[in-house]
Design brief:
The complex is a heterodimer of chains A (about 270) and B (about 260).
Chain A: H1 9-43, H2 55-67, H3 70-102, H4 104-118, H5 126-132, H6 136-161, H7 165-173, H8 178-212, H9 221-230, H10 234-262
Chain B: E1 8-16, E2 23-32, E3 37-42, H1 48-55, E4 63-68, E5 71-72, E6 80-83, H2 95-104, H3 110-123, H4 139-151, E7 157-161, H5 169-186, E8 189-194, H6 197-203, E9 206-211, E10 216-222, H7 234-251, E11 260-261
Parallel strand pairs in B: 2-11, 3-8, 3-9, 6-7, 7-8
Antiparallel strand pairs in B: 1-2, 1-4, 4-5, 9-10
The chains are: A mainly alpha (about 270), B alpha/beta (about 260).
Amino acid sequence: MSSATTPAAGGGFYRLAERFGWAVAGIGLVAGVWFLAGLWLAANPTTKTFTAFGLIPTLQAFPELWAAGKIQAAAAASGYRLGMGLLIAIAIGAPIGVLMGRIKWFNNYTNSPFQFLRMISPLAWMPLAVLVFSTWNGSIIFLIAIASVWPVMFATAAGLAKVDPAWFKVARNLGAKPWHMLTKVIMPAIMFDVLSGIRLALGVAWIVLVPAEYLGVTSGLGYAIEDARETLSYNHLTALVVTIGIIGYFLDGILVALIKRASWHRGGVS
Amino acid sequence: MAIRGTEIKIEGLTHRYTPRSPVTFNRVDLVSPPGEALAIIGRSGCGKSTLLHILAGILKPTEGRVLLDGTAIEAPAPRWVMMFQAPHLFPWMTVSQNVGVGLSFGRWSKQETAERVTEAIKLVELEPWADNNVQDLSGGQQQRVALARSLVMEPELLLLDEPFSALDAFTRSSLQKDVRSIAKRKGFNIVFVTHDIDEAVIMGDRAVIMAGSPGNIVHELDIDLPDPRERTDAAVQALRTRLMTMFQEAANYKKPESATLA
């Protein structure tokens, strides 16, 4: 028997410290380039107006925005829209993906229209969304949902196509009902692929969110950026852009951790 | 874990996969008494695995029926459980979770599930690995988990479709003896399909040979040997030779006919 090896506690700490070190070094490099670019902007008379885009003014803007509650309010509004959009995308995309992966005729029937719809830029739906939905929030949530539904749907279908048909035979043989097939076989088997799809969907949704919030809403990170641009508060603008990056990085990190947890592939079981 | 055997009655069983495909086997009749270990041997394509799948309720016969103590088998059920060629374990689960998965499909209390799982794991001697992910185990150990997963259901009939064919000789030999020993201790029936004459003699109380196209039972042999059985025993060798001769005769078998073997 080949038993699983448990890494020594010291080794685990070393690896974590090493990863943290690389992350700090990478971010440090970006910050360094940004700092130098800020100095260059300040030193050049033609670009001096834009000095507020530099690292130091941006860092100074954070406490101001935080104290005014602007970051929290914008993040909460955007988070709500993102969460609702993703939730709708998962609620629609995952079950349809299961049907696509499990029923051949359904896959054949839907593949072309879905591939066609997937190729339409989510932002191209914007005028239609504004007409159909009575609120700006509704339009933005729709745009996020339509952008994120495809990665969830296709990743779920691809995950199901990889499921060993023998697992269904074994489960049936042991008395599994359709509900058990779903909860005990299908869901754990494809969770890795579904979460990978959600991770891709999150990336797309995050990209769509900001331009979508340039629509008529008066809240959210996209609106706050637009507002900062119009009031020429460039350091606020860059601080908000950085905030978007931080939140996106954090959310992606959560999904990576969930994907690692859901992953069972080791290639050892027939 | 109290298990009892069952009388298996196969009556006029005929199968074809589709109305246009050739008949797999034609009007097979067979009776197996409670607690018997029955080996089905034959060349590839004679329908022995199909017969086993019908016994498990996974496939439906075109004609005829299978009765377990008078109850017709029409769908899979915990009373008759099949073990496949490969263990087909759920790789995201531990040994215990895999063993108990069939119970989680039924209405078993947590305590009863835990007790039965522990006993089944003990029966296949995998206690030290109970909490390990099944991917940590060797092929033989994985097949033991599959055996425990079947035994935990306390079946009256255990069906085995060449379950040890992918294992090395030592592991195969040890599992053959273990399965027979557990079945005899618990009293349940075994019906197993094999290409391996030695396996039929070591594990079975009786062997039937299927041949022809469409397939049918053409020979049978009682394997009346004491336990434990060793390959090197003279009596085992003698029965092996007899069975091999029958097998070779069956290989030349041409005309299909049905046979009733009680």
